[in-house]
Structure formats: structure tokens, C-alpha cells
Amino acid sequence: MGSQLTPHVAVIGGGCAGLATAVRLTQAGIRTSLFDSSHQLGGRARGIDWQGLTLDNGQHILLGAYSQTLRFLQTCGADIDTGLLRLPLKLEIPGKFSLESQAALPAPLHILVGLLQAQGLSLSERLAAVRFMAGLRLKQFRLAKDVPLQRLLASQPPRLTAMLWEPLCLAALNTPIATASAQTFLNVLRDSFAHKKSDSDLLLPRADLSALLAEPAATFIEAHGGRVSLNTPIESLHTLEHGVRLKLKDAMQDFSHAVIAASPFRVAALLPSLQGMEDVVASCQSLQYQPIYTVYLQYPHETVLPQAMHGLAGQFGQWVFDRGQLYGQPGLLAIVISAEGKHQALTQSDLAIKIHQELQAVFPAMLKAAPLWHKVVAEKRATFACTAGLDRPGQTTPHPRIQLAGDYVGSGSPLLDYPATIEGAVRSGFQAAENIIKSHQV
């Protein structure tokens, strides 16, 4: 293959994409060094300490369709049965809307019949939802041209959009429906609802994401001969005839390949001296971002919601999770607010009060008193804005020994692109690793 360097891959970034890359490489027996500038792994999927508890940097929902995430967890030896609570799809906004998959039916009938029986919608609204899903299936969830999701939903009744399609879009794409990519949304619907019945299951984490994802991955990497270096920022990359040179704070290190699994807004700083990378840098810099706020409210320990996860239809909160039922943290509720909105203009204390008032209106008998404390985790650049027609950076770069990995990286086909999810990050990391593995098999 012409390389003068023994295969040794540098993975820059210890989020889900970087961890997946390093896990797959070390599993294949390729020497791998993972570098992260932070003091802990996980990127946006990590635990944080607060009030003697471990919280998540953001509350996540996984789906049964996330096959590569499940493969990643299984490879690392994570106990999926105890680490994830698997529930048949049930989306409920108390007093307003309820949708349940029909467990006795095969896919996609389990969803279509569930839509016909949805509570809180008129018959015409339910029929409109079924026709919409059936029509998408006939078209194999393909669009001739990507459009904003709101345009695709123009024929759907407004209440149906508000109760179902918009919440699903915000949860999956973290992008308002006015600008969100319809094709990427359809990719998620296809994978979740059109194949196996279990693909639509909700997988709710029962442990913080550091314990569920990052720690098992790091253990696997090191047990298979890899190296994990924290608090180790990479200042820049330089090309060699047969490899890549990384500039660290106090040293230079040479590698056969490098996978940049850092956030896209950090890519430009790593590539200042490399010719031919201008388009890669420009593509990464052109991405826009959307926030995610997670509001933690601690109520008395006896506080328990009717189920582990509920939808909300207030002015701010979108989903509420009972972490007592999921994590063994009694009375602690986590409320997710996806994408941009008026909540960003509030102070964190005012936002916590507004969320508490919304919850009281939904669960008046359970939340009579104010929370004991609150914690607002605001990720202002939580995900890239998954907009219609977005030209995403590709996996490969003009330098054959440098690749990109991350949830923002395009697959090469709009029909395969995923939004900024753990699944999208893991898919990208695995693909970067496979590209390198194949190059050493030639």
C-alpha cells in the first residue's frame, strides 16, 4: 500500500463519533490513540455532577432503530438490558394527545392502526396522518428534492402537526419545521416505522451517559491496546509523505492516519497549514447551530409522574422525564427544550419557574410545591441545524489520510443522512474506521 508508517491512527475528539471510531479500529487490531481536550469523554453525551447527583449534559432518547448505537454498546460490553429501558412507542401529552403502537400487529400496521386509534385527534385528523404515512411508504420515503418539512406538511391539519409531526421533528432533528430537512426527517421515520416493529421502541437511558457510553468505550479501547489521552488538545495537523503529524502542546507525534472527530467549528483551527482543505474548512464553517436546554427540577422524593416520559404542549417545555423511574433519582424531573425559541431570552431562574408552572398545570395533584432546587444545562451549539438542502461536509478529505467523523458529516446520499443524534455520530465513526481498515487490507 506504499505506507512507510506502521498503522497507527490518531482520533481527535472523544465524543460519540471519536469513541466509535476508536472502538472499531482497536477491535480490528489497529493501533489507535484517542485525544480529547476535555477532562472527560463523551462530548455532548456526558454526565455532570450537581447536588451530589450525576446528571446528563442533555437528556437523550434512543430508538430501537438505532442499530449502530446498539452494536457499539454491545461491542463495548455495556449491559443494554439494565442500561436502557425499552418501551413500545407511546407518545402522550397529558389531556391533549396520546399515540400508542399496537404491539399485537406487525410493522408498519402497528403504527398505522396506532394512528387510527390516537386520542385527542378528530377522525379526519387521524385519517390524514394514516394517508400521509401510507403515501410516504409507497414513495419509499424518498423525495425528488429536499424541502423544508413545513412545506411537506402543508396538507396536514394544524392540530395534527402541532401534536405529532412538530414534536417528532424537534426531538429528532432539533430544528424548527419551518427550515428542517424533510428528507432527513423521512429517513428517521423510515428506519423507525417501516421495518421491524421493535425499531419504533423508545430506549430510555437508565444510567448517565458517561456510565452508559463513554466509560465502557474507554475501557474497551484500552483493553484492546489503544490509548486514551484526556486534557490533550491538538493544536494543528501537518501532512507527511506517508502519514500525518500532530502538533500537541509540547511535542509532535506522527501517525499513519488521523480522524478528526471534533465539533465542526473546531475543524478549521486544526487545518491551517494544509493545502487543498479550503473547501472542507469552508463547509464546516458554513454550518449553523441550534441549542438544547435541559431543565432539571428537584421535587420531594415522593414525587412520581404517571410514566417515565411525557410530552408537553406548553410554551416552553417539550418533554419531561421522571429520573426517579429511570435513574433512581427520586423526585428529579428533566425537561427538554429543543431548538431556538423565546426561552433563550429568559434567565435560567425565570426559565425554571416557567417550566415549574407548566408542569403544575399538567400535574396539579403531584406538583403542589415549588422545586427544592433547579439546574439548567444550556448547550447553545448542541447540534448543527439540519436544514433542507444542506450541503454537509463529507467523510473523506482531499488528504487521503485525514477523515472527518461526527453527526454533522454527510453519508454521500441524502437518503442515508441522519440528524445530529448519537446514532448519526456512531454511524460516522464506524464508517471512518471501516475506511481505514479497508485501506490496510489492500
Characterization of this structure:
This protein has 442 residues and is α+β, with helices and mostly antiparallel strands. The chain folds into three domains: 8-52 and 61-82 and 207-287 and 392-439, FAD/NAD(P)-binding domain (3-Layer(bba) Sandwich), CATH 3.50.50; 89-200, no CATH class; 289-384, Alpha-Beta Complex (Polyamine Oxidase, Chain A, domain 2). Helices cover 33% and strands 22% of the residues. Strands 10-2-1-14-20 form a five-stranded parallel β-sheet, covered by helices on one side. A hairpin with a 4-residue loop joins strand 12 (243-247) and strand 13 (252-255). Helix 1 (16-27) packs parallel to helix 14 (422-439). The longest helix is centred in the C-terminal third of the chain and has 18 residues, at 422-439. The mean pLDDT is 94.
Q: Roughly what percent helix?
A: 25-40%
How many helices does DSSP assign? 14
The CATH class assignment of the largest domain is: Alpha Beta
Note the beta-strand portion: 15-25%
Q: Helix/strand/pairing class, anyone? A: alpha+beta
Name the overall outline. globular
- As an assembly, this protein is single chain
The count of domains is: 3
- Ranges where pLDDT stays below 50 over 5 or more residues in a row are none
CATH topology of the largest domain: FAD/NAD(P)-binding domain
- Give the biggest beta sheet: 5 strands, parallel
Q: C-alpha Rg, in Å?
A: 22 Å
What's the CATH superfamily of the largest domain, by name? FAD/NAD(P)-binding domain
CATH level-two architecture of the largest domain: 3-Layer(bba) Sandwich
Spell out the key features of this protein.
five-stranded parallel β-sheet; Polyamine Oxidase, Chain A, domain 2; 442 residues; alpha+beta; FAD/NAD(P)-binding domain
